[in-house]
Structure prediction request, 227 residues.
Amino acid sequence: GAGVSQSPRYKVTKRGQDVALRCDPISGHVSLYWYRQALGQGPEFLTYFNYEAQQDKSGLPNDRFSAERPEGSISTLTIQRTEQRDSAMYRCASSSPGGANTEAFFGQGTRLTVV
Amino acid sequence: EDQVTQSPEALRLQEGESSSLNCSYTVSGLRGLFWYRQDPGKGPEFLFTLYSAGEEKEKERLKATLTKKESFLHITAPKPEDSATYLCAVQARRSGAQKLVFGQGTRLTINP
Prediction:
């Protein structure tokens, strides 16, 4: 597709349930990032991949959060046993590093609400 | 630890009233400094990348500049459609540090 696509756009889940958020990056982009953004704040880094390799997961809050990108394209962010504090906008971005331009392009995000 | 601080948090201007937004940063070796625009309910939209002190980039009414400690986003004769939150982010040069570290943003409102 032309841009970064995230699904679902909105997700309401009950506390304790698992959720999976999907990101389809710009075609050909090597790097894929996950961020979390609270209202009125800048995006906060969670994890990123180059191809299928998870290069940095230092921003994942705890072991309930995990991410994968098995074929180096689509990625899934999974939150197990969701808690109310997990409610936020989750954003995915992709980029093509290594050249002169390293900017990341963001998707529309998934608004997660845990009730 | 890499850090970005933006000021002011919010800025309200009249149409045509020029001003500047500030982004102060600390990073162990800067690979790039990025400016994004974010409209309500949307994802951040890329504006500029600056790589070295002294560099400047322009796009319509916006000009971004960079020193060793801060970046400015100058807005000349703004229009109401320039109203948005402007985000600054840094990327470190060190190996394995590809992530972007964002500031909290400046919410800009241009009144007609």
Chain B touches chain A at residues 4, 6, 31-32, 34, 36, 42-46, 49, 87, 89, 91, 96-105, 107 (CB under 8 Å). The radius of gyration of chain B is 14 Å. Chain B has no helices and eleven strands. The longest strand of chain B covers residues 30-38.
